[in-house]
Amino acid sequence: MEKLKVNFEVKEDEDILSSMKEAYHACAAAVKYCNEIGIPQDVIDDNITKVFDFVCDINYCKRCPGVKECKKNNPLLISKVVYKNGVVSNQLTPCKALLKQMAFDKQFKVRDFPEDWLNKKTKDLEETKERKKALKKYVDFLKGGYSGWIYLNGGVGTGRSFFAAVISVDAANRNLGPICFLNCGTRLREMGDLQYAKKGNDLQDLITRYSTVPILVLDDFGNEFKTDFIRDAIIYPILSYRASKNLFTIITSDFTIAELKTMYAINKPGEIRARQIANLITNECGEEINLGDIKIH
């Protein structure tokens, strides 16, 4: 009885190995790769279990469920076949989806918008006259025909931040970053606090970053706490530098540029700088794009 059991197990193993070989020959990508690195067929047959791991990964990744849904034994890794000095081995390497995700994540130095917006596309934007106008400016930027900044205003919930986020995500997918998407209420206050905490070097590093980053979004601009210092030492230098270098900038706000001019004056001595900021934004944006007052987000 014991001998019959052993024979049965051997037969089972042979069937499994045969199935592995069939799967290998049915996988054109695996066959091509093994041919390219010069593995003889008899060596492939002798190491079919190692090659089969590679085949399984190729077939699974053809229908990639996405980085967060990967259910392989080695999630987000590929069991790549290596052939050196007549020896076949497996080497785990990051999959293309992971590498793409890592490249995408590196694009954002600051991302103050919800994670569930990261999978949105420009096709998800509402098709209105005003949004098309704003989108055209971005398309012109992609074509290399810089046409200034984008200034979006309108009521709360009209999709200003969403529009800017979708554009930022599209730019990140095109590797146009680094990108900083700042919620002004939070980030400008933090920068002001650095000065009062006597962390001037940290503050200057942030000013330099936001001034020079290829794409900057100032979201909810005008709702931040306003001081002479934030206006004169943070906002104006950043905007002035970006304007001088033609760096793509998106500003979203509850307010019109004229209203910002009044708000940033703060006091009589501040009127000149407030006017400079308003004029600078007007010159770079050309026009305000008003998304209205009807909530869509």
- Class based on secondary structure composition and strand pairing: alpha/beta
* CATH top-level class of the largest domain: Alpha Beta
Q: Report how far the terminal alpha carbons are from each other.
A: 72 Å
Radius of gyration: 28 Å
Number of strands: 8
Name the beta content range: 5-15%
Total number of domains: 2
- Name the helicity range: 40-55%
Helix-strand pattern, N to C?
HHHHEEHEHEHEHHEHEHHE
Overall average pLDDT:
89
Q: Describe the biggest sheet?
A: 6 strands, parallel
Number of separate helices:
12
Contiguous uncertain segments of 5+ residues: 1-8
Task: Report the CATH architecture of the largest domain.
Answer: 3-Layer(aba) Sandwich
How would you explain this protein's 3D organization?
The protein has 297 residues and is of the alpha/beta class. It folds into 2 domains: 7-94, no CATH class; 101-290, P-loop containing nucleotide triphosphate hydrolases (Rossmann fold, 3-Layer(aba) Sandwich). Helix content is 55%, strand content 14%. The strands form 2 sheets. The chain has a 6-stranded parallel beta sheet with strand order 3-5-6-7-4-8, with helices on both faces. A hairpin with a 2-residue loop joins strand 1 (77-84) and strand 2. Helix 1 packs across helix 4 (48-62) and helix 8 packs antiparallel against helix 9. The longest helix is centred in the N-terminal third of the chain and has 25 residues, at 2-26. Mean pLDDT is 89; it is low at 1-8.
